[in-house]
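USER: For my understanding, would you kindly supply a protein sequence with its structure tokens?

ASSISTANT:
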Amino acid sequence: MIIRVVGEGQYEVPSSLFDELNIIDNKIVDLVSKGNEEEYRSELSKLIDMIHSNGKQIDDSEIVESDIIVPPGDLTFEEAKDVFTGVGIFED
């Protein structure tokens, strides 16, 4: 599975990690809907860290279509309200 972290590049991440990433994504959707900005920031950081630690960064010279696009770690809470809605970025 290819995941782009906006502003950081693409990572090849094992598909077996999808469920774990989806759980974090769903938690972020819930936190955003409840207005919990502090925990939102923590979970977004956790999501990106998991991609970094389990993925292999793809060289920028390679052109590969992304399966999932993750917003940058500095996404504001207001911006998150437009991104983390419904099923989130990892569709069930």
Remarks:
- The mean pLDDT is 96.
